[in-house]
Design goal:
The protein is α+β, with helices and mostly antiparallel strands and 555 residues long. 36% of the residues lie in helices and 22% in strands. About 7% of the residues have low confidence.
Length: 555
């Protein structure tokens, strides 16, 4: 019994002795290192950092899918004031960090510096390698950072974050991260008279983007750009009745998790920050103006000779060499066959002033007001009283005027929804807003039916059981160096469905579930839009109709 008690006493004494040695080592041997690290964190004010709000996509059933989250990442940093030999430390780390030795020596030699970040969001293997070296003054710790679980999906809409200059948290760059910076960032804590004011977390942001439609749109766009060796492209899917953006994709793309590996030019959103001449898709707008002003009807006829000359310039139909003149045709035939001279006829019937006034009303000279940063307005600058008639004539079929893709789809949505201009948006908390009525319900229905006829006539975008409206556009790219146009083209297709059905109870019934714009930049061989973006539209439209389980409207 005595032996047992002695053994227990010795065991307890040994345990306490070990604890005392560990405390000695911790406080006296390694204590200085912990103080250095604590001091550097204090100076960096990391504990005052507010958690940034998350961003979510929303599917058709209201389920949320994380698009942007916060996650712990390895942070490699130095405390130069604690580094004994700056040159030796620099030589050890230079090959691992792939940075010049001289640059690291300069950073490590500043003894006044108590915090020098070396690698943010470090790869685990790199962080482990540096930790294993146990270099005095070099540390690896966890740091909260932005994480985009879907990688490059919707990158142009989302944007990314970069470290702030004061090294307290991040700041939004491009996209929604920038536009909703104040909402997402929260408020960092402060130290006031020795008292800590705790940080306030940022608020979450729920988007109208449907992840299923977004992923499908990006897959179709990727294949389209690859197959036609195009320089880029964009797809927008919108609810034309409300302005909700359901998908927004552009190429070339980037990964916001690794944005530093991509050219800065990739960060600009072509949907809102680039303008282009849309081509024949603009004929739909011209026809809507003509119908709404009473200058033409879908059945108005004129004689097509294949070309028209104004101010010494001759405008030809794109297919004149292949098809020849169309002869006596209606305005619906003009949309069906995309006849340039027919659009010119309609514009001449409308008149320059009225034509220009309606284009402004459709929003082509203004920003749509979408909740994305640095949106550009369209350019109608050439449509002024000093210009010649031929300038207005070419504008009737989309050359000589410039639009953003978001401005074009928003204007076309007014045809789809019964005549009103809505404000497009991505924040699901925003209430739908009608900007103004542009054309009458009857005009919208008649113009929609002309587009449906074009789809039925061509057959490429036709989907069995549904009234699908659509219009192509193939526009030559301007030569900004020498003037005129190059041989390169931009293909565009705008379509929606189900389109306005027959008149019921004296009023057209317009309830489209989606409107889509597909734009392809400089496809190889300069093909017409019917060969490139139209099949892509049909595939995406079929997916959306199936996804929403939209019943056929053509029984």
């Amino acid at each position: 019994m005595v032996f047992r008690l002695a053994f227990i006493a010795l065991f307890i004494i040994a345990g306490y002795t070990r604890v005392l040695f560990q405390l000695y080592d911790l406080q006296l041997v390694e204590g200085n290192q912990f103080l250095v690290r604590a001091g550097s964190e204090y100076l960096a004010l990391r504990f005052l950092r507010a958690n940034r709000g998350a961003i979510y996509f929303t599917d058709k059933d209201g389920n949320l899918l994380p698009a942007v989250l916060n996650k712990e990442f390895p942070l490699v940093y130095a405390v130069p004031s604690a580094i004994d030999d700056a040159e030796e430390t620099a030589n050890l780390l230079a090959p691992i960090l792939e940075r010049p030795v001289a640059e690291l020596i300069a950073a490590f030699s500043n003894k006044e510096d108590k915090y020098e970040p070396l690698v943010r969001k470090a790869e685990p293997e790199l962080a482990d390698e540096i930790s294993a070296l146990r270099i005095k003054g070099i540390y690896v710790e966890g740091e909260p950072g932005r994480f985009y679980p879907l990688d490059s999906h919707a990158a142009h809409a989302l944007g990314f974050v970069s470290p702030k200059s004061d090294d307290i948290g991040d700041i939004g760059q491009y996209g929604l991260e920038s536009f909703y910076e104040e909402l997402l960032r929260g408020y960092h804590g402060e130290i006031i008279d020795g008292e800590i004011v705790r940080p306030t977390a940022g608020k979450d942001l729920v988007l109208t983007i449907d992840p299923n439609i977004e992923i499908e749109a990006e897959k179709i766009l990727g294949n389209l750009v690859h197959d036609w060796k195009a320089s880029g492209g964009s797809i927008i899917v919108m609810d034309p009745n409300t302005g909700k953006i359901l998908a927004m994709a552009s190429a070339p793309n980037f990964d916001p998790n690794n944005y530093s590996k991509f050219p800065v030019g990739n960060f600009l959103n072509p949907v809102t920050q680039e303008i282009y001449e849309p081509g024949s898709v603009f004929k739909v707008i011209t026809m809507a103006i003509g119908i709404d002003t009473g200058k033409i009807t879908p059945d108005t006829t004129y004689y097509d000779s294949g070309s028209v000359t104004l101010n010494g310039w001759t405008i030809k139909n794109y297919d004149l060499d292949k098809h020849g003149p169309y002869g006596r045709v209606t305005m619906t035939n003009v949309i069906e066959h995309s006849i340039n001279t027919g659009a010119v006829f309609a514009e001449r019937e409308i008149g320059r002033d009225l034509f220009t006034e309606y284009l402004h009303n459709f929003g082509f000279s203004a920003k749509t007001g979408i909740d994305l940063p640095s949106e550009l307005p369209g350019d109608l600058g050439r449509l002024n009283p000093k210009e010649r008639d031929v300038v207005f004539a070419t504008a009737s079929y989309g050359q000589g005027v410039a639009v953003t893709p978001i401005g074009l789809i928003n204007a076309m949505a007014a045809i789809a929804n019964g005549g009103v201009l809505v404000k497009p948006y991505l924040n699901a908390a925003i209430e739908p807003e009608i900007v103004q009525r542009i054309v009458s319900v009857g005009t919208a229905q008649k113009t929609s039916q002309m587009m449906v006829s074009a789809v039925d006539n061509a057959g490429v975008a036709k989907i069995k059981g549904y009234a699908i409206a659509g219009k192509t556009g193939t526009a030559f790219v301007p030569d900004f160096q020498y003037g005129g146009y190059t041989e390169k083209v931009i293909n565009t297709y705008v379509g929606f469905g189900p389109a306005c059905t027959e008149v019921a109870a004296g009023k057209p019934v317009c309830d489209p579930k989606f409107i889509t714009l597909i734009k392809l930049d400089e496809p190889e061989g300069a093909p017409v839009a019917a060969l490139t973006v139209v099949p892509a539209f049909r595939d995406l439209a079929q997916f959306i109709l199936n996804y929403y389980d939209v019943p056929p409207d053509r029984l």
